[in-house]
Each structure stands twice: as C-alpha cells, then as structure tokens.
Amino acid sequence: MKHIDRRAVLRGLFGGAAVSIGLPPLEAMMNASGTAWADGGNFPQRFVLWTWGNGIVPGQWVPAEVGEGDAWKLSPELEPLAALKRKVAVVTGTEVRAINSIPHYSGLGPFLSGFVQIGEEGAHTSGGPTIDQVIAEEIGKDTTFQSIETGAYYSDGLAFRGPNQPLPPERDPAVLFRSLFGEAFRAPGEDTRIDPRLALRQSVLDSVVGRIESLQGRLGSSDKARLDAHLTGIREIERRIAKLAEGPPDYESCARPASPLSREQLAEDPFEVHAVMARLVAMAFACDQTRVASHCFIRPVGNYQFPGTTEGHHQLTHNEPGDQPMVHANTVKQIEALATFCTALDEVAEGSETLLDHTIVLGTSDVSLGKTHAIDEWPTVIVGSGSGTIRTDVHYRSTTKENALKVPLTVIRAMGIARPSFGKDDGYTEDSLGALEKV
Amino acid sequence: MPRHHLRRARWSQVAVGLLAVACATPEVEPSDKDSDTVDDTPVVDPGPAPVPEGVAPVLRRLSQTQYEHAIRDLVGDGVYVPAQIEVSQRIDGLDALGDATVALSPRGVSRFSDTAYSVAAEAMGPERRDGLVTCTPSAAVDAGCARTFLADFARRAWRRTLTADELDVLVDLSTSSAAVLEAELADGTPATEAFYEGLEYGVSAVLQAPDFLLRVELGEGGSYTGFEMASRLSFLLWDTIPDDLLLDAAEAGELDTPEGLDAQVERMIADPRAHDGLRAWVTDVLWLAHVSELQKDPSVFIQVSDDFFPSSVEETLRFVDHLVFGADADFRDLLTSRTTFLDRTLARVYDVRAPSREGFGLAELDPEGPRAGLLGQASILALYAHPTSTSATLRGKFVRQTLLCQTIRPPPSNVDTSIPEPTPDAPTLRDRLDSHLENPACSSCHLDMDPIGLGMEEFDGIGGFRETEAGADIDVTGDLDGAPFDGLAELGTTIRAHDDFVPCMVDQVTRYALGREIDAADADAVHWLEQRFAASGYRMKSLWVDLVTSPLYRRVAEVVP
Questions:
Q1: In angstroms, rounded to a whole number, what is the distance separating the alpha carbons of residues A147 and A198?
Q2: Measured between beta carbons, which residues in chain B are less than 8 angstroms from residue A234?
Q3: Over chain A, what is the mean pLDDT?
Q4: Which of A149, A204, A373 to mutate to test the interface with B (most CBs of B within 10 A)?
C-alpha cells in the first residue's frame, strides 16, 4: 500500500524542490508562513473517530439545503456545531449495504471496517481493522501511542485492530491522564536527565519478548495472532522508553495538563467525563503523544437515561411515539458533546490555525432511525479539514442512495493513505466522494 | 407450539452472527438431545466416565479476579491492583469465553506492565520483603539469594518449575539491575537496598511474562501435564494460582493417578478458597459484574442508593454459596429457595425485617410469599430491567438464554418494535405488550420471552414488590412451554422442572470450566456429567468434582498449527 507522506512532500517544498506536488499554492503558502511544526516540519494530520449511540431522528438530522458556505444551514440536530459550521461537512442520503440482521451492528461494522459484522450484539468482533486503526497503522507508528481509545459510558468499545483484537476504551480520565502524562511523559523544558532505570525496564521487556517468542512455536494460528498483538503492545512500551531517552518534546502548544478528577469523582456523568477526556486527547495531540483517537460516547444500544427524559435512551428510540421529541433531544445532547470534543481541539492553537484544522473528526452512530434499526440515511458528520484535505462548510446529499462506505474511504485518502477500495460484496467501493475531496 | 427452534445448538459449532434469518421465519436448528429428560425418578450411576478425544487447546488470559487473587497469593493481602486492568469481552454469555478468544490490547499490555512494577515495588518494600525473601543478601549483587527467591516466586507465578535457563534470565535481570542501582544509591544507604530494588526487575519480568498472564496449558500426548492440571484445578476451583502443596503434588506425578487427583480435589473443595471459585462462576454466568454499570432513576426508585448495587450482587453470591457449600442442597433449589442473605439496604427494598446487625444476615422469606429463589433477587430483577421500568422481554430472554441455554434470535430490521405508551385502557405492561404482539414479525420471538417476564411483573426495576401498575392489578399468570404458573415463585418452580434447566446448568459449568463451547466430541462426556449430577441429587460440589476428575477435563488434542 502506497503511503503519501505529506510531511516529506512539504519538506521537499521547503527545500526548494521545484516539483508539482498537487497541493494548492495557497495552502503551501500558508504552511510556509507560520504553521510549521516546531521541529521544522509541518503540523501532522490527526484523526478522531467519534461515535454516539442509537442514531438520529432523520427529519431533524438532514439539513434542508445542500451546497457550500451560506447555501446551507445546520439542521436542528446539528445545530450544536453552529460555532464550528465553517469546519463542518455533512453527508446524508447514503446507505450501508449489508444484511441488516444484527441490530445496531449490521451498519456500523461495515461502515467502520469495511467488513460485514461478525458476532452478536454485545459479543461482536470485527472482520478487520476499524478505520481509526487503518489510519493509525499508517500515521501512528512513530508516536508514543499508536492510538488512544476513550469512552464516557459503559462500553466494550468499537475500535478493533483486527479480528478478536478489540481496543477497549478507557473510561476514567484519571487513568488516562496517568498513562498519557504520568511518569512516561515530560513536557517541554522539563528535566532531561535520563534515569538509568529506563534501560533496566528495557531489559525486562527483552525478557518478556523472549518468553513470548519461545511460546510462539508451540501455538496454533489464532493464539499466535493473539501473542503477536501482545508483542505490538510491548513494542509500544519500548517506543515510550525510547522517546523518554530522547528528551522532552518541543511543541509550542504542548504543556502538562493539570491532573483531572476521576470518573468516580465526576459522578460517572458521561458529559463531564467526556469533556475532561476531550481536553486530555487534545493535549495528547498537541504533544504528539498520538495522532489517532477514538471516542465512544454512548455505545450502540446504550440505555443511558439522559437528564429530563423518562426512560433510557435506547428504550426511548423504540418506544417513544410520534416525532420522538425525547430521542431528538438526546441526539442533540450527543451532538453537543461532539461539539465539546471538537471545540477542545479548536482551542489549541497550532501556528496560525488550530489543532482542529489539522484533524479530521469523523462522527457517526450505529443506526439512522433507532426505532427500526435502519441503516439507510446513514448519519455522518465530519469536523475539521485535516490540514485542508477535506472540503468543509458543506452539506452533500446523495440523491441516489450512494454507498455510505464512500465516506470512510474519502477520509482514509484524505489522511494521505492511497487505499484502492473499502468494503466487501455489496458494500465494496473504489470511489471517494468528490463533493468532499479537495485535491 | 414446538420449542425446538429455541434450543441451543449444543455439541456443535454455534455460528452466531451470520444468521440472516428474521424472527418471523425461525429456522429449525439441529436439535440434539430432546430426550434429555431429567426428572425426579431415581437415577442409576452411569458407570465410568467416557473418554473424549479432546479438543485443541487455546490460551486463556487470567480474569481480573484471578489476577487479583494471584497477586494476593504471591505477595500478600492488601497489595494494590487497579480495577479492570483490561475489561473482558463477553462472548456467548461468558467472559470466560472472551478471555480465551481475544488478544490483549496495547493499553492492556501497558497497564499490566505498570501494575507489575507497582506490585514488585510493594513486594520488595521494607514491610513485605523479609517475609518473601527468606535468604539474607550479602551485598547488592547476590546471585545465590536472588536465585533462591526467584526460583520459588516464579514457580508459583508460572505454575511450574522453571528450567535452569529460564531462571538464569530472571536472576541476571535482577543482579545486573542491582549492580546499576548500587551506583545510584544515596550516601549511607546499605548496599542491600540495591539488591531488593534489583529484584523488583526480576519480579516484574515474572509478572509481565505470558507464562503468568496467560494460562499456557497445551498438553502432551493427548493429556494435560501434571502442572497444567494443577493450574486448571486451581483457577477453576479457587479462582487463583495453585498453592505449593498442589504444585508439589503435580511435580511428584500425583495428579496423574486417580487417587492422587481425587485427594487434591477433595482438599481443594474443602478449602476456603473454593468459595472464590464458585463466586467467580456465578458472577460470570449471571453477568453480575454488570450490576455496577446499571443506571436507575432515583425519582422512580426511591430506594436506590449507592449501596444498592453492590449489596444486590452480594446477596446473590451469598445465596448461591449457601446453597452449594453451606447447605449442600439440591442445586435446583436455586429457583425456589426462600433462604437468602440480606443487609439493611436490601431489606428496605424487599420490605422485610432488617438483620439486627450491620452487614448481611441470613433471612428466611415468607414461604407463601411472592418472592423466591434467584429470580426474586434484586440483582437479577435490576439487571434485566430499564432505568425507569421493568422489561418483560429482557427477563424472559434471561430465563431462556442463561437458565435454559436456549437461543433467541435478534429482532428483524426495519420493523417498528415500539411498545405503546400506557393509556387508561392499557395501563399495565402486559396490556401494552399484547398490542405489540399483534405484529407477527415481533410475536414469533417475543412470545418466547415476554410471557415469562410478565410472570415477574410484580417486581419493579430494582426488585421491589408491587401489586398494581398504574393503579391496575398486575396479571402474573402464564405458561412456560405448556407448564402454567401464577407469579414469580411458581415460575421458578416451573423452570426448575423444565427439561432444559438441569442440562443447561451442566453446560454453564462445563463451558466456563473448559473456556470454550462444548464440542460435538464432548457429547457423551457431558451427558455422563448430567447423569452423575442427577445421581448425586443435583449437588453442585459433586458436579464440579466429577467434571475436574473426568477425562473431559484432562484430555486435549494436539495444537493445530
């Protein structure tokens, strides 16, 4: 798979290489005039997968007008993103093409991974890596963490590195803080002395790798794959040790955040937990601890009872009569949380832009209309242009029920990955969405 | 209506997830053992256990509680272990199957690594190290003393005697670390401090190794080895690592003889740690870990407090523990027993007299009252309900799937599954579900679940008793596959007598113990266990003993490369 290294491309630019590189001149100028990464390179692209639970009320979700800029307005369920509208792209009218036999997972599985969903509700696995991991495999290899998974409410998570390789989300901000900004982190300007214990820890890992390798030869293929995944985890610890030995980073917006309250101290309130998580992830991006994150806000089938409603959310999607005002209100609240996440990224300056401008946040849910577990009119919202690789302030509505998997493929390509296709069988596509692409 | 479409495809690969069949057109699944009737007629001993060929082994990772108990046994009480180091994935109703299937995430590997260091630091701290390291180090680098300690520590952690090469690696790690750390010591600190800190690296390596975190039980020549059997016994029966007696018995070959094996199993079942083993099984099968995740609206359920959730779990654990160990009763009484354990929090919810002391006390419920057995407990009634209401569907599904091991298909797509709002004409859940069931796409499956759950409707979403809903009397009559019942207590009696209940309990023990689905090759062996269970008068202890001493627990096929 060919990987277009945008940083290399731009370094080439700075070096004066007179080559046409397919970037609009304006963007190149902007980069030359102040959005340079502190190490002299370009600000990296980041990716966030942000999922909410139990879908939308389509009549309140789909914006009335299509087009760009002032031509379209946000719908009631997208209204929480008003302050960020210029950075928002909405795609409606697409469908996930899969046999819809596993409520809440039949649509989400193919949308996230391209593979048909395997397993049952709550006991599912993925046929392959989910989009966050497809991207992390390409852009996450050099960062301290290949990716970060967080959640605000009970969930086994939606991110998979491969079949039977789930990446369960961290739900406690205090624990997330310790792993991101604990003893394995030094902020710019902090002590650069290298503790000899680091080398000892490396020797311990060598012995663990030795044990894993000695076992590998005795195992069947599925257990081998499990231990390979275990080794990936070990390599990530090794990378962390190596980073520490390199000395603290020097990124202009990177600073050690204050230690947050724990999930318990936040009364397990998903909104409070999420807001803290968002700021931690933003700082992890700013410090280049990682470039890929996923957040599972309310899980598929999540039955969280939102304040002011009479039943759990999942239950309401099925039982609330009429136009489902409470389901609508719950969806608005979840999109408010998405706005909170994006705003946390937008509040971090990077050069003349913000972290959000260098990020693609892909928001989606597990169904469209929860009441019928529908997987047509698939909800997708993108925030942030990924350093100008995605067109924003646009509502594209497919009038031909296009394949919803064009959206993840478009995003993967915008992240600089030359992927030929996405999806299987009826869901297979080689096409990105031209309306979003910015070439 | 024939119920065979509900039966779990036992002894065969359950191909979940790829079912394209909607509920409206239930597919007949291969029905294996419809003649599995278990009744109260005396059962003769089925003779010697069949010897299955065995199934290829898989690695199982330690559960959270197994890890916690192992650290306790290795280092001592009170060592800090973070909660939920890596959440288990629940597969087909058991975390035990998830632990045998999925890989650790990088974050999980990292957290187990961090925990290994914090545990090692506590172990080698001044308060604990003298109890663990029996030799006295002569200097910062004392390979002999390090070897003495690590040989014993790693043997217990890895559940086998290490080879000389394996031990060398750990000793070298510790001594070379000690040498580096000696140079870092503050002036005046005894050099032996570096010895202990060096050992932390050896201990940490032991605790991060796959040999500790995973159960490496791969067999040899068609059977698990003695050491592997020691592990299998202790993780199942004690939810922790083997003790020295068990390891010594394994090393001496005692577990390879029926007499030696019986003697160890008898000792283990009588040991207090056996309560942990039973608790772990009950917690997994009944999904009790999920109770702490429940959300209940305090404006609807005024009795809900923070204590409610852990108390409700504790009641169920004590209830089953009493049934199995305290009373050694017929396990089918799970569904009918009126003897339970309550604290003040639960006594308030149940509206019965609170125990006279703080904490849990034995309580005898009214023998004629509506509340009886497992189904009448707050944990189950709260788990299978919504934040503000009950759920006849979830409760019925629990009975079908967990207690009868039957399969319920997921709802079809693009069907409006809503239940009407309460109205003056339809105040109760039954009224509302009745109209819901007019849709044949819904009714084909919901008729399998809802009538069972409606029998439990006198108990609200946290297990409080009520006689009316929205002012109307609640009708709790129904039938379970043709057997009529009136209310939750009778429903329990009906399930107790259901043909699928006892085989299901045997399945639930066996799947958990083996960490895999029951294979076609196991059919005779599992049937033998059912017969033995019946012959014992349904004593759970006896089922566990029969299982772990039978060839089913010992035989293993070659690894498939």
A1: 23
A2: 109
A3: 88
A4: A204
CA distance linking residue B131 with residue A330, whole number of Å: 56
Residues 6+ apart with CB under 8 A from B164: none
pLDDT (mean) for A392-398: 98
Q: Do A305 and B297 touch (CB under 8 A)?
A: yes
- At B485 the three-state DSSP class reads strand
List the single residue in B with minimal CA-CA distance to A168: B87
Q: Do the Cβ atoms of A204 and B173 come within 8 Å?
A: yes
What are the angstrom distances between the C-alpha of B532 and each of A8, A182, A295, B51, B503?
A: 71, 55, 50, 15, 11
pLDDT confidence tier of residue B41, bands split at 50, 70 and 90? low
Instruction: Say what the ipTM of the complex is.
Output: 0.90
A44-173+258-427: CATH homologous superfamily? Alkaline Phosphatase, subunit A (3.40.720.10)
As a whole number, mean pLDDT of residues A195-209 equals: 93
Residue whose C-alpha is closest to residue A231's, from A200, A208, A214:
A208
pLDDT tens string B362-373: 999 999 999 999
Cβ–Cβ < 8 Å for B2, B397: no
pLDDT the model gives residue B3: 44
DSSP-based three-state secondary structure for B214: strand
Three-state secondary-structure class, residue B361:
strand
* Disruptive mutation site among A108, A167, A211 for chain B (greatest number of B CBs within 10 Å): A211
| Cβ-Cβ contacts under 8 Å for B287 (sequence gap 6 or more) | B90, B93, B383, B402
Contact B388 A233 (CB under 8 A): no
Smallest Cβ–Cβ distance between A220 and the set B19, B104, B560 belongs to B560
Query: Cα distance from A289 to chain B (closest Cα, Å)?
Result: 14
CB contact under 8 A, B295 and A179: no
Residue B108: other Cβ atoms inside 10 A: 22
Nearest-neighbour CA in chain A from B126: distance (Å): 20
pTM for the whole thing? 0.91
Number of CB pairs, chain A paired with chain B, less than 8 A apart: 206
- Averaged pLDDT for residues A22-45: 47
- CA–CA gap between residue B416 and residue B409 (Å, rounded): 16
**Tens digits of residue pLDDT in A113-122:** 999 877 655 5
Q: What is the mean pLDDT of residues B377-383?
A: 98
Section A402-413 average pLDDT: 98
For the ranges A156-165, A225-234, A322-331, B135-144, which has the lowest average pLDDT? A156-165
* N residues, chain B: 561
Most confident of the following: A311-325, B30-44, B79-93, B538-552 = B538-552
Other beta carbons less than 10 A from residue B533's beta carbon: 24
Assess A164–B contact: CB distance below 8 Å, yes or no. Answer: yes
B392 has a pLDDT exceeding 90? yes
Coarse DSSP helix, strand, coil percentages of chain B, rounded to the nearest 5 percent = 50, 5, 45
